[in-house]
Specification:
- Helix content is about 40%, strand content about 25%.
- The chain has about 250 residues and is α/β, with parallel strands linked by helices.
- The chain folds into two domains: about 1-135, Response regulator (Rossmann fold); about 140-245, Orthogonal Bundle (Arc Repressor Mutant, subunit A).
- The strands form three sheets. A seven-stranded mixed sheet has the order 1-2-4-3-5-6-7, sandwiched between helices. A four-stranded antiparallel sheet has the order 8-9-10-11, covered by helices on one side.
- The longest helix is centred in the middle third of the chain and has 17 residues, at about 120-135.
- The two termini are about 40 Å apart.
Length: about 250
Amino acid sequence: MTPLNRARHDPARAPGPRILVLEDDPAISQLIAEHLHRTGYTAVVASDGLLGLELAHELSPEFIVLDVTSPGLDGIRFCAKLRTRSRVPVIMLTSLDADEDRLRGLEAGADDYLTKPFDQRELVMRVQSVLHRTRTRPFRDVRRAGDLVVDRSARVVNKARRRLALTNREFALLVFFMDNPGRAFRRDELMREVWRRDSGDASTVTVHVRRLREKVELDPSRPEILVTVWGVGYRFDPPRAPDELG
């Protein structure tokens, strides 16, 4: 395999689906890559989480094999950041044989996990199984921002693993904000984009934002997610994930 910054790949050896392998131990990553090549996959190997995240965005791999203890950006945080923009299947590798660690990985968005040491043939079989499952399962349109998760296909909203009861208009308003983080919108813009009206009572927007704050804010009287931009309107500031706080 030839160098690519701190990543290694060899697309000529196998024309099959591209798999990103994030593993800092060169002996393990080499072994994984060789087995994947033999099975018909193209392996791209990265040695740290930050580079791996960059490659995931640049190369759009069909699958990711992820070491939970990767340097630079650990596997849990890598997966959480990845899931804000990608549904690519992920298998997480861990040397920690504890239910809590496996659960954290699955909650961050991993599709499966494998505990070290493992048989390379089992890894390949897991990859094939997850690829088959994700290719045949129904499409799910999910948005994540911190501990706020919106599943558009199921019309379900969870915050800190707690189901929120939103009206259809509140749901549409929240989805619009999450699709446009960090941008301030006037009330008339929100009326046009969410209500699909060129004119209307701006107080309708105010009322819905207030009700939405009561459901998604820790303290609705001091909003940190749906913030007021004085003289303009409202802005969505994505909440930080629990492992990003402090």
